[in-house]
Structure prediction request, 346 residues.
Amino acid sequence: MGIREPLSEMACGLPHALDVMGERWSFLILRAAFNGLYHFEEFSQELGIARNILSNRLARMVENGVMVRTPCETDRRKVEYRLTEKGLGLLPAMLALRQWGERYTENFNTGLVLVDCRDGLPVQPITIRAHDGRELSWHELGWQTPDKVGQPVDRGSEAHSADKAPDKIENFG
Amino acid sequence: MGIREPLSEMACGLPHALDVMGERWSFLILRAAFNGLYHFEEFSQELGIARNILSNRLARMVENGVMVRTPCETDRRKVEYRLTEKGLGLLPAMLALRQWGERYTENFNTGLVLVDCRDGLPVQPITIRAHDGRELSWHELGWQTPDKVGQPVDRGSEAHSADKAPDKIENFG
DNA sequence: CAAGACTAGTTGCGAATCGCGACCTATAAA
DNA sequence: TTTATAGGTCGCGATTCGCAACTAGTCTTG
Prediction:
């Protein structure tokens, strides 16, 4: 990581997530892995990524526990890269990103729809939900200290009018 | 984007999403914006990012419709950067990434909990849900052509045993 | 109104990263 | 035994990043 310290600050999971997955190609490699690819040459051909970069990213994902690297039993030239449970855990994030990309790409060609295998019906758009399942928007969210969980949060009547902010009204991150 | 063509292939929203948000700092700037910051100097101080990079990223986000840039009425030295609806639409993706980062960061210090303002109860972990709300894992998902939506998908009995893959069994992306 | 301070940048330059092609090693197939 | 394949590494030019310094408008203060 060298000089990149600022990404590693604590109390927010985003820096760590970006540290692991924030480099160019990482998410596309992940997508390919979810696609069922697991050999070096497969990733290389599918993505058209430079070999040294691919090598670097795969090593990094292994190092960070997103993938495991195992020599192939039946053909010892080959190596298998497989998603770990931690890697599989990135599916909601990747899908949310994808859905966003699809929604806001004009003339997006809906070639294939992600569905529940069982009934072939499309999955829902990914949303943020309250404990009881209600869908929540940004304005309905707030931060609470662990000891005060269960107490309503006052967000200071929405700081979003110009020049009101004396300091951070609410802390979303 | 010059030579970066491979990211812009169609039929998948991820390349577009990464094109817009995949550069270093973009997601942290987004987080800061969700935090209620909207001035150049605020972002600069909060993130410790180089000024030229910040300038570049903000311009890019404006260009891509994630933020709008408006000169401040009351102090014309200042400029306001605000999230558009498109920008707000990134909240599920950002939160999914954050939750993943939190979950897999050891000794993660849970300083603040994201809650529903109304009752102060924590939001759910972000998941993928079927049309009827059932939570779905990777193994239960498949791709279907639009005209065949509603027909169950056979994923070829899970390609994930070594050396079976003659070709892509199922196409997750 | 003039002198300073503040905001939002831009510019230049060295350092780090990316992308391409060539090369290398171990294994498998002909 | 020769050739092909898989998974890399190495070197080098092009791009991007990070830092510090500088600039152009716009308040603010005396």
Notes: Residues 3, 39-41, 44, 51-52, 54-55, 72, 75-79 of chain B lie near DNA strand C (CB under 10 Å from a C1'). The radius of gyration of chain B is 21 Å.
